[in-house]
């Protein structure tokens, strides 16, 4: 127990609850101060279990929004004191949105559950003593421990580098600082390109934007650049610059936006090509030099690989995610963790290998050990077998597939061309699938299943589930927790759809099978979805103002 000094006369904002002041005792494995009470802890909160949430992104915010306000003494620890609306981050790189429009102070969100906030970086978890080692991030390097009863790890991920030589020359797009740096670099390069002393070759290089990675982030950044070139650059800068600008996307797969339906990827490629954006597919970046990206054509002879190069003024690296140092450290401590890039959890989002089940992980830093759909075979089969004759006709099989797609969205990509699938597993060619044939099919699907995608949608749904789950198990002992957990059930993901901005239009696919492929209306739909997903009315208002300002005055082109 820590030394707690009651300040008898101190009152909270409502002049009611006595406050506590802290003089943390030193202890733990590293002899650091142990902060067991927040500065603004009320006496009442000390009786509640301590819930520590690491991170202030999609996962953490969704937990905070769904947690019962009275069940825990909540402390949020994050490197940033704000929530960042990442899907609109590419828009901030060219000034379509102001950076501040994408941010909401985490203190305002945590206030709903009377939560405390510490702007600090989690360094290590002491699982045995249930404490987090934390370091302040604002110049002062104070280190201290924060004890927990339950810990939620929602620290997201960092960019994967694949060990590429020269990666330090590239820019990333994950944080608000990244967007700010890109915006400054883009505008600075354009200003440099306008100098009379800049040679034509230098100008071309300064205005060459190379994007390594043709996923949603890379593609949306290219689209924003494209909008900016056509709307603002031509209005305010020498028109000749337009001729010298080039945008190149280098993608290792067959298509850009390869997680989307191929029709959407092809539409995006055609549109970009028409607008003069170069798309290099089936190419792997080999190294990045100070002024050029060298890539290898994947289909070239492995014994004599063909390399090509493209000079750049700005190079964005956007190719996937890797563990943050904190998650890596935690994963190494828990020998049971098998997954290379994330923490593995069970269906209740409890980190595997933590015996008392007190640590939860969600979002980009975690993955759920895949549910085995074979274990749900009877449920799937009986639900589809309308005439209950123990076999599935093609019609009944379609029903089973619909059910599986809804309940286990990750199976979707393995459940296409249904008639072929039906024929393939109807081994006795009876025109129906019996239970053994269905078992063979589900077994094959299980072996091909991948993990939930690292998206805001997944993190947010997991946070919603975890907030509600934690509210229901608050204060329960281990046995009652297990019992209650079984009643609540494991997390199930409901894939609503995916969207991507393509420059004054958008593409998307929705869970009811609808595909949105271009058109101005698609851009407005895209805007409305993100507008409605905002965490506060303040950011909604900011977005609306930004869109209006852009339409009336164009984007801001000043460098600050
Ligand atoms: P994050 O939202 O990344 O939050 C992690 C938090 O942890 C941050 O606040 C960080 O500061 C904090 N943190 C990190 N390390 C520590 C530490 N050691 N100690 C304390 N705090 C720490 N997804 C979609 O579904 N749709 C989209 O359109 C989309 N567009 C995207 C565009 C961009 C540019 C990017 C980068 C991502 C996009 N995503 C999109 C993916 C989505 O942003 C992530 O999947 C989502 O943010 C994951 O949520 P999270 O809570 O796991 O992590």
Automatic annotation (TrEMBL):
Keywords: Calcium, FAD, Flavoprotein, NAD, Oxidoreductase, Transit peptide. Coiled coil: none annotated. It is found in: Mitochondrion inner membrane. Transmembrane segments: none annotated. InterPro entries: EF-hand-dom_pair, EF_Hand_1_Ca_BS, EF_hand_dom, FAD/NAD-bd_sf, FAD/NAD-binding_dom, NDH-2, NDH2-like_C. Belongs to the NADH dehydrogenase family. This is Pyridine nucleotide-disulfide oxidoreductase-domain-containing protein. It comes from Syncephalastrum racemosum (Filamentous fungus).
């Amino acid at each position: 127990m820590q030394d707690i000094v009651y300040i008898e006369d101190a009152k909270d904002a409502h002049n009611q609850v006595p406050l506590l002041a802290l003089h943390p005792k030193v202890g733990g494995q590293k002899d650091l101060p142990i902060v067991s009470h927040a500065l603004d802890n009320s006496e009442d909160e000390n009786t509640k279990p301590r819930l520590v949430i690491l991170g202030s992104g999609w996962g953490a915010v969704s937990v905070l929004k769904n947690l019962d306000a009275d069940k825990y003494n909540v402390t949020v620890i994050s490197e940033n004191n704000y929530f960042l609306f990442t899907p609109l981050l590419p828009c901030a790189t060219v000034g379509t949105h102001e950076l501040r429009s994408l941010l909401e102070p985490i203190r305002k969100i945590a206030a709903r559950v009377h939560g405390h906030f510490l702007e600090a970086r989690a360094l290590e978890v002491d699982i045995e003593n249930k404490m987090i080692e934390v370091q302040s991030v604002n110049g002062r390097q104070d280190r201290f421990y924060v004890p927990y009863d339950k810990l939620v790890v929602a620290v997201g991920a960092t960019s994967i580098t694949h060990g590429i030589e020269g990666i330090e020359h590239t820019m990333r797009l994950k944080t608000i600082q990244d967007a700010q740096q890109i915006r400054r670099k883009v505008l600075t390069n354009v200003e440099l390109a306008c100098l009379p002393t800049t040679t034509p070759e230098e100008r071309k290089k300064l205005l060459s934007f190379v994007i390594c990675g043709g996923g949603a982030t890379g593609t949306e950044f290219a689209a924003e650049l494209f909008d900016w070139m056509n709307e603002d650059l031509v209005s305010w800068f020498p028109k000749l610059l337009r001729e010298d600008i080039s945008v190149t996307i280098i993608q290792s797969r067959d298509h850009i936006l390869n997680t989307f339906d191929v029709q959407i990827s092809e539409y995006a490629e055609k549109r970009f090509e028409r607008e003069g954006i170069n798309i290099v597919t089936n190419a792997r970046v080999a190294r990045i030099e100070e002024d050029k990206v060298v890539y290898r054509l994947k289909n070239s002879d492995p014994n004599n690989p063909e390399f090509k190069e493209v000079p750049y003024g700005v190079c964005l690296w956007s190719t996937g995610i890797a563990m943050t140092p904190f998650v890596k450290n935690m994963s190494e401590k828990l020998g049971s963790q098998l997954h290379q890039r994330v923490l593995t959890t069970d269906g209740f989002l409890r980190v595997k290998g933590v015996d008392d089940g007190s640590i939860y992980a969600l979002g980009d830093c975690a993955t759920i050990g895949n549910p085995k759909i074979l274990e749900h075979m009877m449920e799937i089969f009986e639900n589809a077998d309308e005439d209950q004759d123990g076999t599935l006709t093609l019609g009944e099989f379609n029903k089973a597939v619909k059910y599986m797609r809804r309940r286990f969205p990750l199976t979707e990509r393995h459940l296409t061309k249904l008639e072929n699938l039906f024929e393939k597993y109807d081994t006795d060619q009876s025109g129906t699938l019996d239970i053994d044939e269905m078992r063979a099919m589900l077994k094959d699907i299980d072996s091909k299943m991948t993990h939930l995608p690292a998206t805001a949608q997944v993190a947010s749904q997991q946070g919603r589930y975890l907030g509600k789950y934690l509210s229901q198990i608050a204060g329960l002992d281990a046995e009652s927790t297990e019992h209650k957990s079984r009643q609540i059930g494991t997390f199930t993901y409901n894939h609503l759809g995916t969207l991507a901005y393509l420059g004054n239009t958008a593409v998307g696919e929705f869970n009811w099978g609808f595909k949105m492929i271009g058109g101005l209306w698609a851009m407005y739909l895209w805007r409305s979805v993100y507008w409605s997903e905002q965490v506060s009315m303040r950011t909604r208002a900011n977005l609306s103002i930004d869109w209006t300002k852009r339409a009336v005055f164009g984007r801001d082109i000043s460098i600050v």
